[in-house]
Amino acid sequence: MLAGGLRGALGLSRVASGERRTAAPHTPRCPADSAPSTSSSHLALDPAPYSSSCHRSRTSCIASTSSSSTGTTSTGSNNSGRASSPAGGITVPPAILTKSAVRRTSSPNSVIVHNLRLKLGSRDVKRPVLNGVDLQVRRGSLHMLLGPNGCGKSTLLKVLGGLLVPDSGLIDADQPSGFVFQNPDHQVVMPTVAADVAFGLGRYVLAEEEVTAAVRSSLRLVNMEDFMYRATHTLSGGQRQRVAIAGALAEDPKLLLLDELTTFLDREDQFGVLGAVKNITSERKDVTAIWVTHRFEELQFADAASYMENGRVVFTGTPDEAKAYMRKLGAPV
Ligand SMILES: Nc1ncnc2c1ncn2[C@@H]1O[C@H](COP(=O)(O)OP(=O)(O)OP(=O)(O)O)[C@@H](O)[C@H]1O
């Protein structure tokens, strides 16, 4: 059980039994990197997209498209920039939906991106960062994204996670998504592991038992259940990274967006984190992980890999095919 004090710290004092977590959060774990959430699920972007409420599944996102297009959505906005649903007093993030979203629930792909374009920069001087990205990621896979510095990997992840809004293109992605960033020190913010994993659940109306169960099962998936009551400052970098992933998992994401999680880790921690993510996609067939990395040796954990150059995906294949492709480019794979 979580300590009573923890409940208050997490803002979980309003418990209504029988109510269940129904919000569809997009989950940036790094406060410093948090941006107004625009959960991306179905983007078929005209230059001026519009927003609406977005609930858990692909299907309901599409269903809410028609109500948004007629302006009948009941979602309002709160101070944090998130939309709030009056129905259960539960906050839900805004989503960007368009009339051209296609119902595709039977697709084996968790993510389909087509001709995605985005320019970034100042208001006066922008330059293309995503130059027509096409990408398909199978549901339940661990898909690695590689490419040289500055080719657009993190930007693509941010677009998939709703942290950036593309200028044009189509995105059809399972939701909700959970984002974990490079530096665990920016993301593991609570004094104990249990409190940290439960952190994001504070915005839901949940019974204490539900919080504890979500925390425990998330920690189990990343092989950290035995650390539940440990002080976070006693953890190694890799353990902290696994706690950050568990924090994202606790909110039941369907898409995990993992941006260079092993950059600061030694080999043991690196493989511990990779093993944890592999375990998640093996055990939870409905969860897909996109893993951005520079480290070729990590390909052995991948189900598939894509290589980006100049804001485009130029190759997608099996890990072995990806290695062969990169060897041809002269990479020391
Ligand atoms: N907010 C921004 N404003 C202007 N340019 C940006 C912004 N964010 C990223 N860029 C530029 O977009 C390009 C792609 O950046 P991104 O971080 O996506 O690359 P990356 O492939 O993840 O690189 P790395 O492997 O070094 O992390 C870079 O040239 C970067 O400088």
CATH level-four homologous superfamily name of the domain at 105-175 and 254-277 and 287-332 = P-loop containing nucleotide triphosphate hydrolases
Radius of gyration: 19 Å
Provide the CATH topology of the domain at 105-175 and 254-277 and 287-332. Rossmann fold
Q: Ranges with pLDDT <50 over ≥5 residues? A: 1-104
Overview of this protein structure:
With 333 residues, the protein is an alpha/beta fold. Among the domains are: 105-175 and 254-277 and 287-332, P-loop containing nucleotide triphosphate hydrolases (Rossmann fold, 3-Layer(aba) Sandwich); 183-253, no CATH class. The protein contains 8 helices and 16 strands. Helix 7 links the parallel strand 13 and strand 14 (288-292). Helix 6 runs parallel beside helix 7. The model is unreliable at 1-104 (pLDDT under 50).
Short description:
GO terms for molecular function: ATP binding; ATP hydrolysis activity. The chain is built from eight helices and 16 strands. By secondary structure, it is an alpha/beta fold.
Defining traits:
Rossmann fold, 26% strand, 16 strands, P-loop_NTPase, binds adenosine-5'-triphosphate, alpha/beta, seven-stranded mixed sheet, disordered N terminus, single chain, 8 helices
